[in-house]
Amino acid sequence: MSLQCGIPAKTAVPCRCRAICNACRRRVALAAGREISMAVGLLMARFQSDRDTAFDVLRDHARSRRRKINEIAEDLLKAEETLNAFKQAFAERGRPKG
Predict the structure, then answer these.
(1) Digits of tens for pLDDT over the chain (98 positions)?
(2) Which end of the chain has fewer CB atoms within 10 angstroms, the N or the C?
(3) Residue 45 DSSP SS3
């Protein structure tokens, strides 16, 4: 995905125009917020927890590894996508789901 000024969303490098730069920062923040929200929802479903507990666990996990919470959220979503690909492969082979 590219931002309004053409900078890839993942890089978050500021552009020359201040107005566009503010728009870039907002979009990057919103994208990170969506990933965090999706990761929290994933944790809620997987571990049958409430939103606050799932967020606290995600935040604590990021802090203990000295990483940004959105990086951990992104890793979690990528891992879930990978597992879903395996689940589909097993389903195509006629194996029991589990």
Answers:
(1) 444 555 555 554 555 555 567 667 667 766 778 999 999 999 999 999 999 999 999 999 999 999 999 999 999 999 999 999 898 888 888 766 55
(2) C
(3) helix
The residue ranges of every structural domain in the chain are: 18-92
Q: Using the structure block, give the residue that is written with the tokens 């082979």.
A: 93
State CA 90 to chain mean position distance.
Answer: 25
User: Which residues lie closer than 8 Å to 94 by C-beta, 6 or more apart?
Assistant: none
Q: Is the dihedral of CA 16, 19, 25, 31 positive or negative?
A: negative
* Closest listed residue to residue 73, CA positions, set 47, 35, 33: 35
Per-residue tokens: 15: 């552009």
Hey, is 8 helix, strand or coil?
A: strand
CATH C-level class of 18-92: mainly alpha
